Amino acid sequence: MIPYKHEPFTDFSLDENKEALNKGFETIKKDFGSDYPLIINGERILTDKKLESYNPAKKSEVIGNMSQAGEKEALQAMDAAKETFKEWRKSSFEFRSDVLFKAAAIVRKRKFEFTAVLVKEAGKPWKEADADTAEAIDFLEYYARQNLELKDGRKVESRPGEFNRFDYIPLGVGLVISPWNFAFAIMAGTTSAALVTGNTVLLKPSSKASVIAYKFIEVLEEAGLPKGVVNFIPGSSREIGDLLVEHKDTAFVSFTGSRDVGISIYEKAAIVQDGQVNLKRVIAEMGGKDTIVVDSSADLDLAADAIVKSAFAFSGQKCSACSRVIALSDIHDELLEKVVERTNKLTIGDPENDNYMGPVIDDASVEKIEKYLEIGKEEGELKAGGKIDNETGHFVHPTVFAGLKHDDRLMQEEIFGPVVGFAKADNFTEAVEFANDTDYGLTGAVITKNREHIEEARRDFMVGNLYFNRDCTGAIVGYHPFGGFKMSGTDSKAGGPDYLQLHMQGKTTSEML
Ligand SMILES: NC(=O)c1ccc[n+]([C@@H]2O[C@H](COP(=O)([O-])OP(=O)(O)OC[C@H]3O[C@@H](n4cnc5c(N)ncnc54)[C@H](O)[C@@H]3O)[C@@H](O)[C@H]2O)c1
Ligand SMILES: N[C@@H](CCC=O)C(=O)O
After folding, report:
1. What DSSP element (H or E) covers 333?
2. Does the active-site annotation cover 341?
């Protein structure tokens, strides 16, 4: 087995790569408008109720019509997962890791096809879609290796005449609920972590990007995953969300999404139901309100580049996106000017044509951002953007507000769109205090040349992922374990060395010789 190394990003300045992605678009277009089934215990089930998954850059383009699981199918999937667990829990660590290695190889071979689906279904610009596919491959490769490291458990001591072991065993049926914004990477990462550790899975992907999830299940099947291990049940959260979270046989919930939904799942999972024999675990990766602090000593060109990339790549629709800048007063105006200049040069349009920014995901997102544009105008001063074009697709222009206080609403609430606000601080300690003064604690960055300030931030800036002299997005599996403090979740650190154990329980055995 070769050591883990992250998947390289594609260089789209090369003609051969451009052609390969354009070929990917041709391949996937043949399936546009198709009906997609649920997959329960390996059986394809087309339901009457279907939900359209469409291209947010071209609303008329239907990527697929996804069957929707109701209560009946959700319970059928639970039965299948429970039954399959009886055998799957006995499968070897090697077998399970091999499924992931094979799945990674299949995705790598068809990389441009998956990237094309992400451009079309999630509205991702080429580079962002490529990074999403690369991260999905990374999760498969990394968790396959991590799992093998756990196969003999951990060393414990034995006394003379005694043989002790400490092993990891699976939990049971896991409910995996994934978001649309990393529709491939997070869905594949959370699903593969749950299954490689010997659990069976109910996968409820986001309805806003479920075709990519269906295609991933096909990959798992091709890679040799036995039927019933992962049961694919897209469906309305209202109809099947609470039902499965509250189900007595759900052993754990692996959720990635917004703060409100995460909290509600956390609360509901804590209630012990009649007949329930395990306390449910919840792995929750939630929202962010991420700050870049720019110090007096900073390289302001580097700072401006980091802010623009973190705030506007994929239209700010990352939990890690920078939506707050706290700049030291003496460099604030020069930094703002540089950010506005760069922002005004960004291209926005259909991501199939490789614009820097594509659309936001849907009408609800446009409405929410529109509301915050008004709030921003009341609380501060609009410096760039502020325009919306919701005709053909859901386009929101990159927007910069200045003159804000760090505790204004625009600087406190997650917007999840291409909007960044600027506030000033008088000294570095105050800047870190302002950065910390949100309910969230996911990512952050500090741009500085001052070594003491780096160490102060390392100690005091309370976020799960803190970066120095770079952007605050783009964590790489195995290099930057990802997850946040406070209302950003349970700090479960996806893509890190402790992640798989969250899906397992430790069992001690002691044998007298
Ligand atoms: N911390 C992280 O790693 C991370 C990563 C990606 C996204 N996010 C966050 O996710 C949010 C954006 O994603 P989203 O819009 O898909 O979030 P969301 O909370 O609206 O939905 C997430 C998932 O939960 C499902 N869901 C919604 N209500 C449910 C319920 N009552 N019961 C069960 N399932 C339910 C949705 O169908 C979807 O699959 C942002 O807040 C972003 O910051 C966090
Ligand atoms: N892991 C991603 C963010 C995932 C949330 O949207 C990053 O580091 O930018």
Report:
1. helix 329-344
2. no
